[in-house]
């Protein structure tokens, strides 16, 4: 699945392909894995996720990438590695693209996401149960793009990250309130959303 987000007010220098990692072992187990202490070394792609990546790269429907920048969690690093290997590119790890930290819900059932998103809808600054504030996620994700905009031009940059951070970033790029980030279309595993220069 692919989406094109128009942002006419931004004088983009580059194209960006915002990619969610493929289906992961955490997805398979219905568990929240947001702490780097666990996510950097474990909970990589599931067999389903690997098949998704094989299909995406074999039937690529976007501009040819020139860079692959990724969260350093295992599931995103493996996703980025599939893309980079297919196109003969090197990898750029970027910790600011990491998963949103879900505090005391770490390792618990993914059913807890619903409560966090309900609190997000009331207050994008909340840090209940030690959860990373939506506003903080938005700032770090947007800064990655701003830094690349300042560094280079006329490139197609794949940014490989996670569902919540990407939906929050897309909310920022659409000029919408952060409280509504869950109103963005859900990003499926291995999906790509194009933003930036046409």
From TrEMBL:
<dbReference type="InterPro" id="IPR013078">
    <property type="entry name" value="His_Pase_superF_clade-1"/>
</dbReference>
<dbReference type="Pfam" id="PF00300">
    <property type="entry name" value="His_Phos_1"/>
</dbReference>
<dbReference type="InterPro" id="IPR029033">
    <property type="entry name" value="His_PPase_superfam"/>
</dbReference>
<protein>
    <submittedName>
        <fullName>Probable phosphoglycerate mutase</fullName>
    </submittedName>
</protein>
